[in-house]
Structures are given as structure tokens and as C-alpha cells.
Amino acid sequence: MMENKRRLSFISELVEPNWRFWSLVVILLLSAGALFLYPVSEYQGYVDPFYSPTVLVLPFIALFRLSCYAYRKDYHRHVFRHPMACLNDERMDSSKRKYTGETGFFALNNFHRYFFYIGLAILPFFYYDFYTSLVYESGFFIFRVGSILLLVNALLLTLWTISCHAFRHLIGGSVDCYSCLSHGSGVKKLFNGQSLLNRYHEQFAFVSLLVVVAVDLYIRALMAGWPVDFTFFKIAI
Ligand code: FES
Q1: CA 22, CA 34: separation in Å to the nearest integer?
Q2: Each residue of 44-75: b (16+ CB within 10 Å) or e?
Q3: E strand or H helix at 49, and its extent?
Q4: What's the CA gap between 142 and 237, in Å, rounded?
Q5: Is pLDDT of 103 > 90?
Q6: Of the four, 55, 98, 179, 216, which is 20 to 30 A from 227 by CA?
Q7: Atom of ligand 1 nearest to the CA of 65
């Protein structure tokens, strides 16, 4: 009886409305279905961000996302319900499930910095896709709504990646006494600049994911014949 109650309490917590987390789950599932059932890699010079540079790197990008601190915080607090905050060892339920830390499968999160290196290496391809969209008609430079979307997507992914905590480590991790650095020190300047971006890392993480999905849907809408593209100008080169 007691066991059943615990089980029910666990299930009711899991499905408790948390619009941000569950809307992300739905978006990811729909995207996965769309990606693999109806693959779209390129249309009218627009490269789908899920295929940049190739769909084969998606598992690494997915691991980069899933091991990101922003998402970790979200699934620990809102799905597993533990820990609810730093240094808060109290569970928010009565099921007495033990917190095992990031062990077992979740030990994979420790590889985040290596997934970060892969993410960093892939960034230039998004800018190349933007460039390709501008020159896809040979002999012309063409600027369209879709190109703006590709650029916004590249910029948001860049902000998300370079505001990563692993990047902080890469920049300042080798410094023992940070306050001993002179004011003019390049490392200090870089680290302070990155710290500014790092404050908004969580926002960049969620907005960049939504924009990747939005760009994919936009390209699919174009393929379906929706009149959602517009050319601002086209000049011969
Ligand atoms: Fe979020 Fe590294 S902590 S990408």
C-alpha cells in the first residue's frame, strides 16, 4: 500500500505541469520525428541547422545540450525534483528516494567540456550556411528573410557556446590567483567579458534551441509552398 502511494507520488510529480520543460520535450520529440521521417537538408540555398555540417554530428550536439548546466538544472529541479537548489538536501516529496548525485548514466555529464569542444568546432559551419544562402544563385548576391534567420541562429548558437561554463575553464582555468592578474591582462579581460555573457547562459541555452527548431520549421514551410520568404535585394556580382 505504502509502496503504491510512493509510486503514485512519483508519477504525479513527473507529470506535474511545468510548461517550460514539457514544451521542450514535445518540441524535441516532434523535431526528431520530422528530422528522421521527413529529412530536409537544404532548400533554395538554406541549409537546415540540424544538418549543419551533417546530421551525423547530431548525437554529439544532443549530448552537448543535455549535459549543459542550464538543462541539468532544469531536469534535476523539475523532473527529478532533487536537488531543488544548491546545498538543499531536502527532497520536495515524501517518497524517500535517494539522491545519488551525477553517477551512473549521469556521470556522462562530466564529459561536457569535450562536447563543448565539438560544439565550438561546428560553429563556423552555421556562418558558412549564412554565406551560402547569400550567394546560392550563381552570379548574384541575394538577401532574403531566411538569410536573416540563419544569421540570428548562428549568433545565438555562438552566444550559447561561448557563454558556456566549460569555456570559462578554458580561458581562466589555468590561473591560480585570479585577483593577482594585472588590470591590463588579456586573460583577465577575456574572462571578465565571458563572465558578462555567462550570466545569461541559461537564456541563451533555451532561446537558441527554440530558434534552431524555428529555422527548421521555416525551411519546411518553404518546401511546402508557404509564401513566407521575401527578397530584400538582389545584385549581380
Ligand atoms: Fe551550458 Fe556548457 S554549461 S553549454
Answers
A1: 18
A2: ebbbbbbbbeeeebeebbebbbebbbbbeebe
A3: none
A4: 10
A5: no
A6: 55
A7: 4
Q: Can you tell me the distance from the alpha carbon of 120 to that of 109, in angstroms, rounded to the nearest whole number?
A: 17
Name the residue of 63, 67, 75 whose CB sits within 8 Å of the most ligand 1 atoms, as the mutation to test its pocket: 67
162 lines ligand 1 (CB under 6 A): no
Asked if 33 and 213 count as a contact pair (C-beta separation under 8 A), the reply is no
Residue-level length of the chain: 237
CA contacts within 13 A on the Cβ side of 6: 7
Closest CA to 56 of 122, 124, 133, 6: 122
DSSP 142: E
Ligand 1 site, residue 72, Cβ cutoff 6 A: no
pLDDT tens digits, 126-152: 999 999 999 999 899 999 999 999 999
226 three-class SS: coil
Residue 91, classed as helix, strand or coil, is coil
Give the residue ranges of DSSP H helices in the chain. Answer: 2-14, 19-37, 58-66, 69-78, 112-134, 145-162, 165-172, 186-198, 201-223
Any ligand 1 atom below 6 A from CB of 159: no
Ligand 1 centroid from CA 111, angstroms: 11
What pTM was computed for the model?
0.83
Q: Which helix (H) or strand (E) holds 47?
A: strand 46-47
